[in-house]
Design goal:
alpha+beta; Immunoglobulin-like; 4-stranded antiparallel beta sheet; 9 strands; elongated; disordered C terminus
Length: 193
């Protein structure tokens, strides 16, 4: 009899628990489906004007000329970006280039639209700000601009003297005295005391 009474007391508790679980289970997918807008996606730096293979999303942190590519953002996301000089080669915080982006319905954007950006050789940091009203930068990328000399600059010369301008005297102009004109005293004329 004691068992029946315990079971009858637990029955309403079990029913109440089942109702609560069912109610909260409906909220889970809604929370997951409602991403916070404005801070989604990623930004990558690509060398030159060419694109990576479709589906290949990678960053190239050492470039000469470059473009920015925004991936996986909200379909109509907009925002701003800026590039600052960065230590050890620049004045940290000095803005050297800035712009805006708009994913225009497909969640992607490419800046410069049809070309590339150039900067002097050095260390830089890209800051990407989504459309959230925050006082901090949303995404960041650090990269180096390193260009090969284009031939217009004189190569750096070493401190060594080229062979044609050598300071040594050629062997034919030797300063040695020939044996016939030797200043040595012959053995018969010895200067003994």
């Amino acid at each position: 009899m004691h068992r029946r009474r315990a079971a009858s007391l637990l029955r309403p508790f079990g029913l109440f628990t089942a109702i609560l679980l069912a109610a909260f289970a409906g909220f889970g997918p809604a929370v997951l489906a409602n991403d916070t807008p404005g801070n989604n996606g990623t930004v990558k730096i690509h060398e030159g004007n060419t694109e990576n293979d479709p589906g290949e999303v990678r960053n190239e942190p050492h470039v000469c000329t470059f473009h920015l590519h925004f991936y996986f953002a909200d379909p109509v996301q907009t925002g701003t970006w800026e590039i600052q000089e960065w230590a050890p080669t620049g004045d940290k915080g000095t803005v050297v280039r800035s712009g805006t982006y708009d994913t225009a319905g497909d969640g992607e954007d490419r800046d410069a639209e049809n070309g590339v950006y150039t900067l002097p050789d050095g260390h830089y940091k890209l800051f990407w700000d989504g459309d959230l009203d925050t006082q901090k930068h949303d995404k960041m990328k650090v990269f180096w601009v390193e260009c090969e000399p284009d031939g217009s600059e004189a190569p750096i010369e070493s401190a060594s003297v080229p062979p044609s301008e050598s300071a040594s005297v050629p062997p034919i102009e030797s300063a040695s005295v020939p044996p016939s004109e030797s200043a040595s005293v012959p053995p018969s004329e010895s200067a003994s005391v």
